Amino acid sequence: MDIGIVELSRLQFAATAMYHFLFVPLTLGLSVILAIMETVYVMTGRPIWRQMTKFWGTLFGINFVLGVATGITMEFQFGMNWSYYSHYVGDIFGAPLAIEGLMAFFLEATFIGLMFFGWDRLTPVKHVIVTWLVALGSNFSALWILIANGWMQNPVGATFDPMSMRMEMTNFFDVLFNPVAQAKFVHTVSAGYVTASVFVLGVSAWFLLKGRHTDLARRSIAVATSFGLAAALSVVVLGDESGYEAGENQKMKLAAIEAMWETEPAPASFTAFGFPDQEARETKWAIHIPYVMGLIGTRSLTTQIPGINDLVKHNEGRIADGLIALDALEQIRAAKGMATPELKATFEAHSANLGYAFLLKKYVDDPRQATPEQIKMAANDTVPHVWPLFWSFRIMVALGFAFIAVMIYFFWKTNFRGGDYPRWALRAAVIIIPAPWIAAEMGWFTAEFGRQPWTVDGILPTVLSVSHLTAADLAITLLCFVALYSVLFVIEMGLMLKYIRKGPIDDVELTDEWMARHNSRLSKDAEIQPAE
């Protein structure tokens, strides 16, 4: 396979996936925030909470439509650009995607119409149930997609069939309760909650700076900071769980993220800063924090985290072992169902490393003819590019702790200082609106780029997964996607900014009348109180 085709296929999928994920976290978080706001409206009967729900719901709707459109394109790419991958693991990977479409997406898509057009046709209680169902559908969509992605990171509950040359599911519940998938789900969803909270906080801060819709803005900040603080704290805790799962199941990814070239005595330190040099296999000007990496990666102070150099040597052995499995596989297929039990037993004993033998396909058509030098080259290919992983991870972590600080500050100002926000803080809240998206994209880059050279970790190399397309096919479609998505992005930003500037148009008069009566009643109560 031409390496240029592989790289173009990866670039195209990365462009569409990262663009799609611009919409996903806001959908996840805003759906829950809308449900919270409408619940308060149903419980209190105060029209301003209805006004808030409808205003933020408009922004949610714009984002939702673009998210659906870009997500559908991604699923088509599995068949168009990654046909051998779809053939090889379709029995496992396709099941969560089908369930997501049949259950979660239909749930979300069905009730979102009722949420937008049912305000005057449903009772408040029925409408808030609909809103919660939309939020539930959004989160269920993320669950099934992340189960599929988690299986690519940690392929469990499946086995390879020598005759069909495909992976076949053996235990659906192992796939469903894959610890990597569960850790990814809670971490990703929590990151979406932080994204929506920062978005609501920033837009509300802009309203306060402009002196517009201040009642809506202050109440929105109260919801965003409470919800966002809990979410920001959980992101850090759940991200730690993802680090532990990587230490258990993807040791090379963890070593590359840390730029840990040599195995250190336990507990390993965390490199807070440095400049990885992959050719020299060292990290220059490194600043270490003792013990931290050992705790993240192993949950202990006595277990070692293997370094990149030792893992490369270990992978040389796995490639050699995989060649035994590959040779047995070829003999089994040649026997056409008449293979001896001994031959089958040989294959089963070494089949866990079959994927490592496939890494040699990059250098030789028949991996069994590979030279020792080619085996070393294939083992070195199991090391992803270190410096992008090293820095993307640290940008994500730094932003995660920054969100905690922002939420603590605004939570304290909201609940203990009467909502007295300095103008510099409000400006900062507006400026950081894009930051959660940067953190989310860095997180996905770390997860997916760190899995290379595998499409399915340890089983299917990326170089074997692509369709038989030409470079011209990929270049033309890539340019078309970039052009189309750029137009959609401009439309998205234009609509969002338009409706933010317009503000909460619906129910303004009703809300203002209710607030006037409410404030009048409070004033009368205050006048009567001393007499009593």
TrEMBL record:
The chain crosses the membrane at residues 20-43, 55-72, 92-117, 129-152, 185-209, 221-239, 391-412, 424-446, 466-491. One of its GO terms (cellular component) is plasma membrane. It is found in: Cell inner membrane. GO terms for molecular function: electron transfer activity; heme binding; metal ion binding; oxidoreductase activity, acting on diphenols and related substances as donors, oxygen as acceptor. Keywords: Cell inner membrane, Cell membrane, Electron transport, Heme, Iron, Membrane, Metal-binding, Transmembrane, Transmembrane helix, Transport. Pfam families: Cyt_bd_oxida_I (PF01654). Its main location: membrane. It is a multi-pass membrane protein. The keyword Secreted does not apply. The keyword Metal-binding applies. GO terms for biological process: aerobic electron transport chain. PANTHER family: CYTOCHROME BD-I UBIQUINOL OXIDASE SUBUNIT 1, CYTOCHROME D UBIQUINOL OXIDASE. Belongs to the cytochrome ubiquinol oxidase subunit 1 family. This is Cytochrome d terminal oxidase subunit 1.
